[in-house]
Design brief:
There is one protein chain. This protein is of the alpha/beta class and 381 residues long. It folds into two domains: 240 residues, Type I PLP-dependent aspartate aminotransferase-like (Major domain) (Aspartate Aminotransferase, domain 2), CATH 3.40.640; 133 residues, Aspartate Aminotransferase, domain 1, CATH 3.90.1150.10. Helices cover 36% and strands 15% of the residues. The protein contains 14 helices and twelve strands. The strands form two sheets. Strands 1-7-6-5-4-2-3 form a seven-stranded mixed beta sheet, with helices on both faces. Helix 3 packs parallel to helix 4. The protein starts with a helix and ends with a helix. The relative contact order is 0.13.
Length: 381
């Protein structure tokens, strides 16, 4: 089954009791049993729910995986992955990643004796040096948030496998339409399904996809034991969004390239970060492991001045100033004060995340309108 068919049909069948094409929302907390322990596969909705089961089967198919475990948010999904670790274990992660991920690793799990190391995973020699006998997990974002660095998933996973270390790829920025990390050797793939999978800025949900049965069993146990499960309405909304994933991402990628081309030639713009350009250091890897280059762009001004960024951030109409990404509408954000505010400025500056850096999540509007919108904001400087 090809991807464009999977989003419509994989794991999804008409409801046998009614013939409904859309998966019903099973809004129930419990299920009747014929006798103690004798039931139709469902006992209690924290443990199982038919709407959630359908979503999990669909997402597993999109990532070419065997198992999917859905959670109430992307951070809840990450929290459960980190619960696979024990005190004394260590994590190696990219030094350019979502602020919420950094916060969970440093502010929450370090208190429980799980230490994280942050380094540029593009540098494979540095990765090999960082792995020690306590390293149990390598956490990969690619493209990274917000600098759009590209990490060679297959190369990192090869090193990890040789060292007996698990790899988890946060695939939120790319979506399974653009890359499938399990095919490149990853052990776990994580999504904030809130973003491209849902696609309409109306639901919060997370998911982890794996092939290994033991990992799946551990995560299913944690899903039930910790209880951070999505409700059936949320699962329904993600299923609805997935049906147009390929169409939305394709259009957003086309728009992003046009907007990047515009920004690159603008005299007031300094750097444009987008892996679709040949001069981008990760372009060759992105060309190999991604179908397209994504719909996220970051750029900064010639002077590292927050006021310059603020002028743009407060003068757009179609680019909405808001957290999040991956919806049909275009969003503009200021990582230093929004998504990455929990990372110390000194650490942000090491990766080029300046106070004037602006991150765009390009939507599916008309590209001419979006370019005109940015141009009008830039003219305010």
């Amino acid at each position: 089954m090809k991807f464009n068919t999977k989003v419509i049909h994989a794991g999804i069948n008409p409801d046998p009791s009614t013939g409904a094409v859309m998966t019903p929302i099973f809004q129930t907390s419990t299920y009747v049993q014929e006798a103690p322990g004798k039931h139709h596969g469902y006992e209690y909705a924290r443990t199982q729910n038919p709407t959630r089961r359908t979503l999990q089967e669909n997402l597993a198919a999109l990532e070419n995986g065997r198992h999917c475990i859905a959670f109430s948010s992307g951070m809840a999904a990450m929290d459960n992955v980190l619960k696979l670790l024990s005190p004394g274990d260590e994590i190696v992660s990219t030094n350019d990643l979502y602020g919420g991920s950094y916060r969970l690793m440093t502010k929450v799990y370090e208190k429980f004796g799980i230490k994280s190391h942050f380094l540029p995973l593009q540098q494979l020699d540095a990765l090999e040096e960082a792995i020690n006998e306590n390293t149990k997990l390598i956490w990969i974002e690619t493209p990274t948030n917000p600098m759009l660095n590209v990490i060679d998933i297959e190369a990192v996973c090869t090193i990890a496998r040789e060292k007996g270390v698990l790899t988890c790829v946060d695939n939120t920025f790319a979506s399974p339409y653009l890359q499938t990390p399990l095919d490149l050797g990853a052990d776990l793939v994580l999504h904030s399904a809130t973003k491209y999978l849902g696609g309409h800025s109306d639901v919060i949900l997370g998911a982890v996809i794996v092939n290994d049965q033991k990992l799946a069993d551990q995560l299913y146990f944690l899903q039930n034991a910790a209880g951070a499960v999505p409700g059936p309405q949320d699962c329904f909304l993600i299923l609805r969004g997935i049906k147009t994933l390929h169409l939305r991402v394709e259009r957003a990628c086309e728009n992003a390239r046009k907007i990047g081309d515009y920004l690159k030639t603008h005299p007031k713009v300094n750097n444009v970060y987008y892996p679709g350009y040949e001069e981008h250091p990760g372009h060759a890897i992105a060309s190999r492991q991604m179908r397209h280059f994504g719909a996220m762009i970051s750029f900064d001004m010639h002077n590292d001045d927050y006021e310059l960024a603020k002028t743009i951030l407060t003068n757009t109409n179609y680019f909405l100033l808001a957290e999040s990404l991956g919806g049909v509408e275009s969003l503009v954000g200021h990582p230093a004060s929004m998504t990455h505010a929990s990372i110390p400025r000194s650490e942000r500056m090491k990766v080029g995340l300046t106070d004037s850096l602006i991150r765009l999540s390009v939507g599916v509007e008309d590209s001419d309108d979006l370019i005109e919108d940015l141009g009008a904001a830039l003219d305010k400087i």
